[in-house]
TrEMBL record:
It holds the Pfam family Proton_antipo_M. GO terms for cellular component: membrane. GO terms for molecular function: NADH dehydrogenase (ubiquinone) activity; NADH dehydrogenase activity. This is NADH dehydrogenase subunit 5. Keywords: Membrane, Mitochondrion, NAD, Translocase, Transmembrane, Transmembrane helix. Its main location: membrane. Residues 2-131 form the NADH:quinone oxidoreductase/Mrp antiporter transmembrane domain. The chain crosses the membrane at residues 20-40, 52-69, 81-109, 129-154. Belongs to the complex I subunit 5 family. It is a multi-pass membrane protein. The keyword Nucleus does not apply. InterPro entries: ND/Mrp_TM (IPR001750), NU5C-like (IPR003945).
Amino acid sequence: AMTSFFAATTGILQNDLKRVIAYSTCSQLGYMIFACGISNYSVSVFHLMNHAFFKALPFLSAGSVIHAMSDEQDMRKMGGLASLLPFTYAMMLIGSLSLIGFPFCTGFYSKDVILELAYTKYTISGNFAFWLGSVSVFFTSYYSFRLLFLTFLAPTNSFKRDILRCHDAPILMAIPIS
């Protein structure tokens, strides 16, 4: 749970699009170690498999955004891309909802089981791990929605030349994303 907490707090402070998603991956690896720490190895592998699929979507969507923005990765220099990149925005939204554990998305099933199993460990360390994991879920939600807001919903902070050249993913990039 400490790994998940540390990576989530580090992800909050990042402004680089790929770094936010990379620290998010470290946080998810922390959940896997968290599950191993409470002796639930099969749940750890279950989260690993779910993570492989729900994390691919934000990474591929981030690549599409970086491609569209002429290799810009700083989220502070983006904004207003939801209308210019609607497909990429929809895919990033779906990936972020799964990442935060929104009900009926893949991340919900594996994260919820890990937290539920920690909650049922009636020990001080199990209780501490549960609360630390729960705070990590909150931080994950925060930086995921921060990424969505700064990249797609905030007023644009980019140069006009970059916005004019901005385009949604070509079909060869869109197929793997979808």
